[in-house]
Inverse folding.
């Protein structure tokens, strides 16, 4: 169309077409705004939840440290240790190393008594038996 062809009717048609285009764009933008508003609402709720959780955790008292756990006693697999444990299990109370040697049937020499003492100490160190008093 050239300028002389513009009549009032043609201008009104152009304006109506442009108005429809603007209305369609408005609807598209409103739909985008609604979608973004929903996303914003979800993010705000999540942020509030995180804030509440953080505040709750900060308000909790410091937990007591857990007591150290000791591994289950594992006696050595050597037969001498099994014999010592068997003697101690049958005993009514604490035994001296010399008594353990006699029960096991080991000759009562200083080296045998010292070897038995070392074995007994290893069992104590591993937690397999308790030493009521040193010696």
């Amino acid at each position: 169309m050239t300028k002389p062809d513009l009549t009032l009717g043609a201008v009104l048609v152009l304006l109506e077409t442009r108005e429809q285009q603007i209305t369609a764009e408005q609807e598209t933008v409103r739909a985008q705004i609604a979608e973004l508003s929903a996303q914003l609402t979800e993010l705000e709720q999540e942020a509030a939840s995180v804030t509440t959780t953080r505040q709750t955790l900060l308000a909790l008292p410091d937990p007591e440290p857990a007591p150290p756990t000791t591994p289950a006693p594992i006696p050595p697999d050597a037969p001498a240790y099994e014999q010592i444990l068997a003697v101690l299990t049958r005993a009514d109370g604490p035994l001296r190393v010399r008594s353990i040697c006699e029960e096991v049937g080991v000759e009562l020499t200083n080296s045998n008594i010292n070897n038995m003492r070392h074995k007994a100490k290893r069992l104590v160190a591993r937690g397999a038996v308790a030493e009521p008093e040193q010696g």
In short: Helices lie at 8-59, 79-90, 97-104, 110-125. Residues 15 and 21 are 10 Å apart (CA to CA). The two ends are 118 Å apart (CA to CA).
